[in-house]
Design brief:
The chain has three domains: 110 residues, 3-Layer(aba) Sandwich (Rossmann fold), CATH 3.40.50; 60 residues, Helicase, Ruva Protein, domain 3 (Orthogonal Bundle), CATH 1.10.8.60; 122 residues, Zinc Finger, Delta Prime, domain 3 (Up-down Bundle). Helix 4 links the parallel strand 3 and strand 4. Helix 6 runs parallel beside helix 8 and helix 10 crosses helix 12. The protein has a five-stranded parallel sheet. Helix content is 64%, strand content 10%. With 304 residues, the protein is an alpha/beta fold. The protein is globular and about 60 Å long.
């Protein structure tokens, strides 16, 4: 039996490592979450480690620190008794250091830390080559400065640029990649669309701590939600991306960037969220609530 323990903030690198492991094992990946273990029990999960009717499998269980001490202990005992199988415990958030799994596996585990700006810039340059394009190192550095260290976001923006640009320079990056605040707002709404309200609230807190005013944040939320509403309305009408650009008079890049997020929720949800943002803005201006409290309560209560 083989047990791997992956943790740390660079989930992109961890995901790549899991793919490499599955390739080495010539196995498929089976994803499991806390709810699977609660519903089926660890015994059933451990019993699948050797494979199934569909061939050999690598079992990847995500975010098991959320199980609590009793659940982790039960799982760890079952794993130690398993005669075979390949398992990956993948903590995509910072695990609790007093947890059973962390104390038992972290010393032999693998941590994936956030890379520095120069490392990320070099990585982007190499990824651009794989996509059949060239990227100036200064352009890569600018992209990191604007989007941060999240490699999922970085590779997503790079792939979009690579579709239309052969030689990516600073000018191309600054033209299409949003400023840090706008990117953070998009990340907040993306988190809400995925049901990750905790991450959304953290994003707003980052913007506030960086000195962005509450009314500025509300204005950006309103702009982004209006865009999502318009894009989703176009999708519902059966329009193509270029048709939404023409009909709504929105920049092509903005439609392309918001297309997948907009599809995650009906147009009415984006409209209602926009209405709540505007109502919060009005209530704060009328002195009916504290600005910071109002913004945080808004995000916590948004149904996106």
């Amino acid at each position: 039996m083989s047990i791997y323990y992956f943790y740390g903030p660079d989930t992109y690198a961890a995901r790549e490592a899991i793919d490499v492991l599955a390739g080495q094992e010539k196995a498929q990946i089976k994803w499991l979450d806390r709810d699977d273990l609660i519903e089926d029990g660890p015994g059933k999960w451990i019993g699948q480690g050797g494979g199934s009717l569909f061939g050999r499998e690598v079992i990847v269980a995500r975010d098991l620190s959320k199980l609590g001490s009793v659940g982790q202990t039960e799982l760890w005992q079952a794993m130690k008794k398993s005669p075979s199988g390949t398992y990956v415990i993948w903590e995509r958030v910072q695990p609790k250091k007093d947890g059973v799994l962390f104390k038992s596996l972290s010393k032999s585990g693998r941590m994936f830390p956030v890379l520095g700006i120069e490392q990320l810039s070099s990585w982007l340059v190499e990824e651009a080559k794989k996509l059949g394009t060239k990227m100036d190192v200064n352009a890569a550095r600018t992209m990191v400065q604007r989007l941060g260290s999240d490699r999922w976001r970085l590779i997503g923006e790079l792939e979009k640029l690579a579709l239309t640009v052969i030689n990516i320079t600073v000018a191309e990056v600054t033209a299409v990649v949003p400023e840090p605040e706008q990117a953070e707002i998009f990340s907040v709404l993306d988190a809400l669309a995925r049901g990750e309200k905790g991450r959304a609230i953290e994003g707003i807190q980052v913007l506030l701590e960086e000195g962005n005013g509450e009314f500025y944040i509300l204005a950006m939320l309103a702009y982004q939600l209006r865009t999502l509403f318009v894009v989703r309305s176009g999708i519902d009408q059966g329009l193509k991306q270029f048709e939404v650009v023409r009909e709504a008079k929105i920049k092509s890049y903005s439609v392309q960037k918001n297309w997948e997020v907009a599809k995650r929720r009906p147009a009415v949800v984006w409209r209602d969220a926009l209405t709540r943002v505007l109502a919060t803005d009005w209530a704060i201006k009328q002195g009916r609530m504290d600005a910071r409290t109002g913004v945080l309560m808004l995000v916590a209560g948004l149904r996106a």
